[in-house]
# Entry
Amino acid sequence: MSEILILPGDGIGQEIITQALKVIDCLNADFNLGMTLEHGLVGGSAYDETGSPLPQVTLDVARQCDSILLGAVGGYQWASLERNLRPERGLLELRAEMDLFSNLRPAILYPQLASASTLKEEVVLGLDLMIVRELVSGIYFGKPRGVEVRNGQKYGFNTAAYYESEIRRIGHAAFKIAQLRDKRVCSVDKANVLEVCELWREVMIDVAKDYPNIELTHMYVDNAAMQLVKTPKQFDVIVTSNLFGDVLSDCAAMLTGSIGMLPSASLNQDGFGMYEPIHGSAPDIAGKDIANPLAAILSVAMMLRYSLNQIDLALKIEVAVNTVLDKGYRTQDIATEGSMVVGTNEMGDLVVEALA
Ligand code: NAD
# Structure
């Protein structure tokens, strides 16, 4: 029995999470999933109702649940609020409060959508890689930081820093994921220039000793960016720091050609995870029944695989999505000539039909 906190958030969040809930209902009814749901507020909608983008009650309920399923946050109407009241702040605080240090960003190309990628089909067909990004430390959080006046001019500075323990735990997370996959980890750093990356590499080599069946390789980040575009299929799991992971994971996402298809997970030490599509709240299409709900639905599959140890059910969802794509159904964002264009709601129904 698992208890999940549902946080639809803003914009298209509500519409896409409604489709994911249909899938959960189906798994509960037909496959004895036994998932119970709590519902909460985060982001702009939480600010409107409570004055905070992360109400205390949301945090309290999250701490009692096994995982979170989130839609997306943000929107034009909240963009001019002071920084600590903005919707995105709610999400960042939630990640920090739950210590979600391990960000999993899969980049999978569905063969039915190969023509949506800007790369040649033969380069991306069969692509299935996982980027494991350290999410709560590194240069985004390092101190000192700031902008001040030095030597008569403005001077901006940040600090790239990692404790050994922080590298060790993201290393273990990556190796454990590689155990479920093709058993290869590529650690991406810039150890030829940065001392913090020398430590990163040293610790990764040490962590690897606990996983003798996993192959560990190293790559400098500039080369990794090049290789991702040139021969992305060479990678299985990439593990990297917060900054490098931020850039490389968006690059990898675009190899698949479609932002509406990709889920993500952010996990803590205990396997608690927050699962969400990689896309934002898409205010430009909110409420029009055209958003692609598949990333949200596939986020449920990720949750089943990485937090709830229900790999069979995760596979069932993934197969159902494939079946719907095989039949030629597409939301507008992934439609090509000859495909049958359906709305958000209908796409959710089609996945449930394929599941049941
Ligand atoms: P976005 O991802 O919301 O949208 C980018 C483009 O992709 C838009 O044209 C949008 O219509 C389209 N798109 C996104 N998801 C789609 C889907 N499921 N189906 C079809 N089309 C889709 O990014 P943005 O426009 O830069 O940001 C909008 C808001 O979302 C901002 O407030 C931003 O801060 C927020 N944001 C939130 C998250 C998050 O909640 N994790 C992530 C990124 C951006």
In short: The chain has two domains: 1-101+268-356, 105-261. The pocket of nicotinamide-adenine-dinucleotide is lined by residues 12, 72-75, 88, 91, 259-260, 276, 279-285, 291-292, 295, 333 (CB under 6 Å).
